[in-house]
Write a structure and sequence with these properties.
Helix content is 43%, strand content 22%. By secondary structure, it is of the alpha+beta class. The strands form 2 sheets. Strands 1-2-3 form a 3-stranded antiparallel sheet, with no helix packed on it. It has a 3-stranded mixed sheet with strand order 5-4-6.
């Protein structure tokens, strides 16, 4: 980095502040010309892409997970805080993989994994849509799995 006034590479940091949006603000002073300037440092994040079943690629949107969880948990004792926490955990797990592309099936499987421990009815509701149940036997198989 160079001083924006004299292009010197010699400066000292006077103050550092972290902000809630994961940005670090640094106030610096050039040791050559004594002028002060501010720099901002931020974490570069990977934009996660989702490969849909039809092959299309779209940006990952945690709000889609939240909406799906809200629908599945209607009239159930699952709070919005729990839904947000689940969605955040799923997003974090996906980011931890380090992949830039993830399949929609992997996302659905993660949702199922976490829902199983939250509420069995919500789990079954979500599974019936996610796995596209068409016959009553589909529910029976899932119920047997949940009872284990």
């Amino acid at each position: 980095m160079k001083c924006p006034y004299c292009s010197s590479e010699n400066f000292k940091t006077l103050e550092t502040r972290d902000s809630p949006d994961n940005t670090t603000r640094r106030r610096k002073e050039c040791t050559n010309c004594s002028k002060r300037f501010t720099t901002y440092e931020y974490i570069e994040t990977i934009e996660l892409m989702v490969r849909k079943k039809d092959g299309k690629l779209e940006r990952f949107d945690v709000n889609k997970i939240i909406r799906g969880l809200q629908k599945a948990s209607e009239k159930r004792p699952v709070s919005m805080a729990q839904i947000n926490e689940l969605a955040g955990q799923i997003r974090q797990d996906l980011m931890m993989k380090g992949a830039e592309e993830i399949s929609s099936q992997e996302i659905g499987d993660l949702v199922m994994k976490y829902l199983k421990n939250v509420d069995h009815i919500v789990y079954i509701r979500f599974a019936s849509v996610y796995k596209k149940f068409e016959e009553p036997e589909d529910f029976g198989r899932l119920l047997m799995e949940v009872e284990k």
